[in-house]
Design goal:
Two copies of one chain form a homodimer.
Chain A: H1 5-15, E1 24-26, E2 33-38, E3 41-51, H2 63-79, E4 84-94, H3 100-116, E5 120-128, E6 134-144, E7 159-163, H4 168-178, H5 190-193, H6 199-207, E8 213-216, H7 221-232, E9 235-239, E10 247-248, E11 253-254, H8 257-262, E12 269-273, E13 282-283, E14 286-295, E15 300-304, E16 307-310
Chain lengths: 322, 322
């Protein structure tokens, strides 16, 4: 992102330094904040903007898809901590000339996905927007006390896994950029238009203690792996041939390695596990693939056949500026 | 607001109808949502947008004031339920060319007020904005189980009270509209630039069971009184001569009745109490003034000396469109 996001987060960390340590189990920098709710339960909170022309475009995305994707972003953060979704809040600012039918269809897309995962739409705010549709989604989840799976617990020797297949969401963006006039068929690019957050998989990984550190792939594999390594103080080496690539479009063609490595918004899970753990090949019908190992040396490496090169996290801009 | 806010809220209520009734004590339509957190405690959640040129203007408001006002909006919703603030989340989208110093000062203004009331900045989201600064503030509070003071509990015969003085925040907006080039002195218009949410007062009103129904005055007295009446299925009659008017500006002139009745963003509390309750004249140094009574008849009335007229809620646009 062109924003100095890291600088901003460290600024917030510094200035927001809190006097409520007992309440706040984990703060800024993970997928969710972890709050002590009761003696046996923690609450998870995550917020995510969905802004027109930054995260979606009205000519590309149906209102149902925009609502679904909004909600998926938050749910995926809950999944990445092994949590159970509880409630959803929506702050929504709308341009004056937006048809009511757009709003109805947007909320339908959003609540359909939320209810599927047991989250109630519980409140929010409405305002007028002078430029475009602005939505902020707040997801509240729960997890047994002290059991949230963090980004920061990866250890040297851990094996690295991903769920599902990668690059499918980004492939749709590349395609739409090329032919900006005709719409894509959402059925051929479901991972982009109607991504499925991995709530059940995240819960199983937490319950069975299969995952030691976890994150959801929203910024792209390379960037999200870098987040885990940074927060855990470790490095990683992954094998390009083992990265599961999505197949999409009419022809079901496999996406490029580049998209699988750097494309964002797949909302799959990336996690590490102690080497002794017996990992199932799939959980709730979602494949689980081993792609590499956590290392002691503070570097990200990509094996390409016989040679190994540095893996540079490229981040993910939702849309190249149009 | 020009937005069909009511239609939107009822749409959300209808579509978001939830399967988690046990968790969700009170839903959309009050100052905060009330969530069952544990056997002895409820959580309060509120979200509030602060959008450039809708809620603030960069040429009028210092970054510290914008941060403070953002935070005050959320804290005031917690105060209106008699709650204790716990944690704060910030979704922040910034234009690419915004100086880092603006962000630092904004976060300082925000966290200073939050920490004063015991709320930790615990997380959020950052994004790029294509038009102006966009902030969404999420406040999390707590209240003993079942004790949140709702809008919907006013009963015929209840006396109506307000804290502090009204119209001071709106007076600043009127003044700035008139002389758009020179800045106002924030010290002369504190209620606008650095409003104080009534957290302690709200807590005392709840603890001592002094308030039966409560709301914060963010949309203006007339509109917020209408909210209480609507949610409680009652009417109200207030006396124009008893409405406490703010004094502001260099001359400390009293604001017009119009501003006291319809001006928004004072963040004082409006509440009703059973007629037998002995109400203190001030709580924690903040005055408490009786202004009227809740009636059975479904109408809002304003007494003006000897005659009584209908009180039409005018709502509050943060800024008239420039």
């Amino acid at each position: 992102m062109p924003l100095p996001e890291k600088a901003l987060i460290s600024e917030i960390r510094r200035l927001g330094h809190n006097r409520q340590k007992r309440l706040l189990a984990t703060g800024i920098g993970d997928d969710c904040a972890v709050l002590s709710a009761s003696p046996d339960q923690d609450f998870l909170v995550t917020t995510d903007f969905s802004l027109e022309d930054i995260h979606f475009r009205r000519q590309w995305h149906s209102p149902e898809s925009v609502g679904h994707r909004c909600c998926a972003r938050g749910l995926s953060d809950i999944a990445a901590m092994g949590g159970q979704p509880v409630a959803l809040f929506l702050s929504l600012a709308l341009p004056e000339d937006l048809p009511q039918s757009w709003v109805t269809r947007f909320i339908l897309g959003l609540t359909r996905l939320a209810q599927k995962h047991g989250a109630a739409l519980a409140g929010g705010d409405t305002a007028q927007s002078s430029h475009g549709i602005l939505a902020d989604i707040i997801l509240l989840g729960r997890v047994p006390k002290g059991k949230a799976v963090l980004r920061s617990d990866a250890r040297p020797g851990d094996r690295i896994f991903v769920t599902g297949k990668l690059g499918g969401a980004a492939a749709a963006v590349v395609k739409m950029e090329k032919r900006s006039k005709s719409k894509l068929n959402p059925k051929e690019y479901r991972r982009h238009f109607f991504p499925e957050p991995r709530i059940e998989v995240g819960r199983v990984l937490r319950e069975k203690e299969l995952a030691r550190a976890m994150i959801d792939i929203s910024d792209g594999l390379s960037t999200d792996l870098a987040h885990i390594c940074e927060e855990s103080g470790v490095g990683a080496e992954i094998d390009s041939e083992r990265i599961p690539r999505a197949q999409c479009g009419k022809s079901k063609r496999e996406v490029s390695l580049d998209l699988a490595l750097h494309g964002g918004e797949d909302y799959e899970l990336l996690f590490t596990a102690p080497s002794a753990v017996r990992m199932p090949r799939s959980i709730h019908g979602v494949s689980v693939t081993e792609i590499g190992r956590i290392t002691r040396r503070n570097a990200l490496l990509l094996r390409m056949g016989n040679r190994t090169e540095e893996l540079i996290p490229r981040g993910w801009e939702h849309f190249p500026r149009g």
